[in-house]
Structure formats: C-alpha cells, structure tokens
Design brief:
The complex is a heterodimer of chains A (61) and B (252).
Chain A lengths: L10 H11 L4 H16 L1 H10 L9
Helix pairs in contact in A: 2-3
Chain B lengths: L1 E7 L6 H14 L4 E5 L6 H4 L10 H6 L9 E2 L5 E3 L10 H9 L4 H6 L7 E5 L8 H7 E8 L3 H16 L5 E8 L4 H13 L4 E7 L2 H8 L4 H4 L4 H23 L1
Classes of the chains: A mainly alpha (61), B alpha/beta (252).
Amino acid sequence: MSDLFELPVRSDIASLHAQLSSPRPYQEIRQAQAAREAARRWPLLAEVRRAEGRGDKEPGR
Amino acid sequence: MKVVAVLGAGGGVGTTTVAAHLAAALVAKQRHTLALDFSPGNLLRLHLGMEWADETGLAPQLLSGKPWHEAAYRSGGGVDFIPFGRPPQGQSAADFWAWLRKRPNWFARRLLQLHAGTFVVCDCPSGEEAWRGQILPSSSLALIVLAPDAASYARAGEVARGAAANGAREVAFLLNGFDPVRHLDRDIASLLRHDLQPSLAPVVIHRDEAVREAFAASQTVFDYAPAGRAAFDFAALGSWVSVRVNREARVA
C-alpha cells in the first residue's frame, strides 16, 4: 500500500470538493460575466448598475 | 378578469405598439380580449384600422356623460378596443383625468361588466398619474416596455417601483426593438438578462421594419407581414402573457 492515501487532504482540494458538491449554475455565471463585460464598456450603464445595486448578485456564491 | 397594464420605461419605447399587438395576439389565441387606450396620444386605434379623423372614444364619451361601451369597436382582425378619443370642444385630457380622480372605482366597476376571463390590455401613458390608482391595483400583470437603450435601462427600476407602489402585484419587463446586430443592443440585453431576472419576459421583440410599415398601413403585423419576425415575436408574447396571467390567477 502506498503512502499516498496517508497524505493529509490539502485545504484547496477540500474547497474544490465542497464546490463540486454544490455546483454553481453555469448559465447564470456566464450571464453575470456577460453583464459585467457589458457594463465595463458603457460608463453610464455601469453607473446606473452600481446606483441600483444590480451588479451585486453573484450566482451560486 | 385578467388586466394587463402595458407601460413604458419612457416615451417612444413602443408601449402602444406592444399593447395593440399583445391584444391582437391574444385574440388570435381565441382569448376574449379588450384593448383600452388611456393615452391621450390616441394612437392605439390607428394600429387597429380606425380612421385618423374619427375622434370618438373613452374621454369624449365619459366627459359627455355617455356609456363607455358605446365607444367600443372591433378591428378587422377581431380585436375589441376602446380608443382614448378626443375630449369634447373646450375640454382636454386634464379634464378626463380630473373626472377619473373623482371616481376612484370607475375602472374596477367597469371590469365587472365584462365576460369573466376577458383579457383587458391597457395602453397606459407615462407621466399622468390618474390612471395608475385605478388600473394597477386591478392588474394581473404590469408589463413595462423597455427599448434597448441606456434611458430604459436607467428608468426600469424606477418605473417598476412606481407600479408596485400603486398596487401592481406582478411586474415584468419586455425588451422591444432589439437588433442583435447592434453592439449596444446586445450589451443592454445581457445586462437586463442578468440584472432583471426573474422579471424579464423570456420573449424579446426584435426590431423589424414591418412594425413601422404595418402602422403606416393601419394594420398590425399579423395582417401586414404574418410570416415576419415581429409577428412571430408578438405571437410568442401573447402565449407567454396568457400562461403567466393564468398562472398568477391560479396562485391567487
């Protein structure tokens, strides 16, 4: 038997496992990303978005 | 009764066009539908084939003390509608709003005279307050029309909050005149999709030259260009509204 199984689980791997057990919705993540990019291109839209608190939603987190 | 209040996030976003076509789409789905124009611009009727010079409608009828239903017409496409009309000589739209303010239950009482299950699509003007306290509390859905521009994006929240404060139980947003070729349109759509979910209608009305042409021809796109993009979109909007409003009625 290798010692491999004796090694402690690294904290970042544990975090990955935790995320996989509650996966983030892919489509919502893509939509959030597209919205962030759109706001970045248009200063007025970004300003309204901030003022209305619309950009706060972060899916799955 | 299923009242859909169609209001705009600003002027020129296509509120009247959406109201007329939503009514026509519901009729095409065999839904008993009445389109009511509360906008002094008096343009809804022109989508439905009424002559420009005909000035009859809700405002002159009520200000003259006559029954409201005598101002109802049926379009060639089968849409029952009541135009706003032109107020009688010496009176203005302000007189009509004052008349309405003195009768806070007028709209709710008129609804009782209609067939149960009738869809009432109201073309609501922006700016004037008198209709809000009557139509919005009776509405199953307040549909806020947005253009793919910064003004609509900026005003959407304010208009929705105003509708809710005036008694609207359900608010939804509709993107109208969307052109996927235009960069800003795509970005606005991305922002709306993310920021206004779940209130954004899953239907988008694409920009289609047939809409402007149909209006110039005194027709809806269902008659003018039935195989066109806009006709397809408005038919989808009718299906979505029908399902959504029926669902709300069941929940209530």
